[in-house]
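User: I'm curious whether this sequence folds into something compact or stays loose and floppy. Could you predict its structure so I can see for myself?
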Amino acid sequence: AGLFLLALFSGTDPGIGIFGLTITAAALGFLWWNWPPARIFIGDVGSAPLGFLLGWLLLGLAISGAWAAALILPLAYLTDATWTLLRRLIRGEKVWQAHAQHFYQRALGLGMRHSDVARFFLITDLGLVALALASTAKSFPGAPWLALSGACVLVFGLFHRLTRKNPEA
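Assistant: Here's the prediction. I'll summarize afterward.
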């Protein structure tokens, strides 16, 4: 949805927006089956092509000049994966083995409900879409850097909130 909004309001490649809207429609269709209690899971067979397609679209977005937006949109997921991988490498763990150390898994381990974690990610993603749109403002040359800085603050705030001992406070 963020890719579609960027194409609509910032003048980037409309093809990226159409593909983004198509992915959004497919994900919303799948959401019916994956809503708790989930009856079906996307698994590796579904998530790998989806990830490759999103990566391709984000590269296209960056090539079209919206490099900050291409970094901002997936920032929560890039940060989670990178941070988790680095933590495991530093601890000497086998990074190719299954684990439960992503931020959402740690939040669940601290007692948060799935719906709470999903809500936090949804709110963060909406904020990231707004910041990605702001990063394309032509009237302010520093917009990409300012929006990227704001996105980093937003994502680190999310992860701090998800890993607090008392998430309701």
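Summary: Residues 114-135 form the longest helix (22 residues). The chain has a mean pLDDT of 88.
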